[in-house]
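User:
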Amino acid sequence: MSDHTVRPVVRAKTGSYVGVTEPNGTHSFRGIRFATFNPWERPVIVPESDACFEADTYGPSSASGDPGSLTLAIYLNPETDDPKKKVYFWQFGSAQMGGTMDRHHYENFVKENPDIIVVTTNHRGNVWGSLDLSLLEGYEEKEELYNASNNLTRLDLLACLQWVHQNIACFGGDPEDITIGGHSSGSNNTTCLLMMPEAYPFFKKALCQASFSCDISLQSRETAKKVAAALFEKLGVRSVDELLSCSREKINEAAGDLMKDAMTGALERFNMENKLFSPVMDDVVLKEDCFKNVADGVLKDKILMFGNNSGEYDQQYERFIGQEDGAEKALAFTIEQNWGKLSERGWNKAHAQDVINAFMSHNTLYGRDAFTAAKDLKNDLYLRDGAMLFALAAAPYNKTYMYYLDWSIEKENGKRAAHGSENDIVARRWENVPENMLETADTLSRIFASFILTGDPVPEGEAIELKTFDRENFETLYIDENPRAVHGVRREDAELLMPLLREYPMLP
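Assistant: Predicted structure:
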């Protein structure tokens, strides 16, 4: 329970919610349940109700299958009585493992931007959010219940988006002007919503940070079955009923072991490139050619922005710094992480070395050393090329923007903007922002706010002439100490690597 005595109350369609007045005068409503579920079944949106609910405590973590974990939080500024505030529907990143919203607070953001309401949300993660039950005995008799079990994370988020569309007007939000977005797996799931026609009526704009549902971050059904088989083997179950009889503790322990196996290479026998528990092309929630929904212009009335940071996974390479052969070890690590595309044992083995050589030949052009190139190669193949792919698919039909965050957090140590380093900046949680980034932090937060408010990422008063992204100019909002528009970021790198992505041939 909060110590604040003035508590706001909002009457929505699904109940009355008693929230919290924050120290800065904004209001938050925490732990609002938007749906319920049975294990591995679709979520069920909570019904309309006259009941009154406490909304002052974040809900339980969604990583362990807790049945009460499908909750959301709402942040708003009561200083304006605008009945149609723009809505930012934001998903945190968790490597698809789930978690809790209490790590991300937006009271400072809505204080500065009173015409925006922020909604953050939980979803099922880990094996609770993506597990193929079709290998188990008894599945065929219960297929109607479990045929979406590979993509429950995505269905949870769709259910939450539907709840927001249904109820947000009661909080002062405009249900017809919702911007969906997120970071890391939150962004990955946002791009899934871009490929799910069922989601289209419920949002107007999308802002995707750092991860995109394509290539290694979008599994085939075959891969999902291999992961499920490994889990069932660890659990010693052969039927749906046996799985359902397992305790949550036992399932979570087995899932943890499975993750350790993946991290130590024990799953190499699966010949997998995908990240565990990624979205699955199951032909139920996500069709085999779901990317074509974007590439065929189905989203033509939406406004989109995609982007990445320069040093997304640089921290994984810090152990090689200072070693005499650090650049060689860094490249070997990158090759192993992208073995399908870059190694002699991968599907691209005939051209793998040519790709590496061509990428390294750009070093002089970009003024980078071999160590930095090894980092760029992984960051690009894992994240940046996915952003470019979605932008290229959408650009012929949609107003589309690209951004690239390239702050040097510690120039003397070569540290660049890392995975997620923008989140506290956007939320205006200055106490968590490196001191040297504070000067431009306000600008970055205003860029996000401007896109949510107007569909244009250039804030009012900023002397930046930014065009939309297209195949000719690759126009990008380059964000460092001096934000500006540039015609492409390391374009030669991008054009070399993007053809390696599975969806590249689908581009218009």
